[in-house]
Amino acid sequence: MNISVASYSSKGSRARNEDNISLLAENRGGMIAVVADGLGGEGNGDAASLTTIKTMNARLSGSETTTENVEKAIISANDEIIKLQDKDNKMKSTIAVLCLNGTRAVAATVGDTRIYQFRRGKVLYQSTDHSVSQMSVSVGEINADKIRGHVDRHRLTRSLGSRKTVEADLTELVSGSGDAFLLCSDGFWELILEEEMSEDLGASKSADEWLNKMRDRIESRISPTGDNHSAIAIIVEV
């Protein structure tokens, strides 16, 4: 399996970066990609996202990346964050993790950090946000294209550290030759449409070129108070 990979993490217009990302080679020739976004309003968001990354790498490195093992790793990350909390520090984080091995992939998310899978220029899979605005879509109050500007866009219904138990969305995906995956924090996807992601993918020969095209769009649109933005782009040839 040949994989083209690119990644970056930027503090945007903020004083510090509370996103953290990780790429880990799997012992069976695959890859584990993780993006975590610490919740800045809860205190020590950078520590929460870093704890998430470290725990996921420790739990998944060398192990079989089944949905069960990925779920256990996320539960462990939640436990580790809670251990670091006190009455003055309720640190929390989102997570998106993608484990690739040949034609098989496991995707998991908690919060509003997203995973996309593209095939032949179309979005084949998109994770579902755990947010109040996504709930409004689910009950028919707004259309999905209104999430980016919704007043409750940043109110999450799930995150690591918010409760003693955590429920992740876990999905098994099939990866075909030419498929592309994108993991990205909300500061990234808020500033670029899915149609633009697909357009830039079609005009790119590598993951690095694809990610740079998308990042250029975001950098040109970010406001003086713009959020941290991070992403991992993967193009697969099986």
Question: Would you give an account of this structure?
Answer:
The protein is globular. Helix 1 (45-60) runs antiparallel to helix 2 (67-84) and helix 5 (194-202) packs across helix 6 (207-221). 29% of the residues lie in helices and 30% in strands. The mean pLDDT is 92. The chain has a 5-stranded antiparallel beta sheet with strand order 1-10-9-6-7. It has 6 helices and 10 strands, in the order E-E-E-H-H-E-E-E-E-H-E-E-H-H-H-E. It has 238 residues and is α+β, with helices and mostly antiparallel strands. The protein has helices spanning 45-60, 67-84, 132-138, 186-189, 194-202, 207-221; strands at residues 2-10, 19-25, 31-38, 93-101, 104-110, 114-119, 122-126, 169-174, 180-184, 229-237.
Give the mean pLDDT: 92
What is the strand arrangement across the widest sheet? Answer: 1-10-9-6-7
Distance between the termini: 5 Å
Outline the low-pLDDT stretches: none
Q: Overall 3D geometry?
A: globular
Order of helices and strands: EEEHHEEEEHEEHHHE
**Annotation, overall tally of beta strands:** 10
- Which secondary-structure class do the elements indicate? alpha+beta
- Helices, by number, come to 6
Residues in helix, %: 25-40%
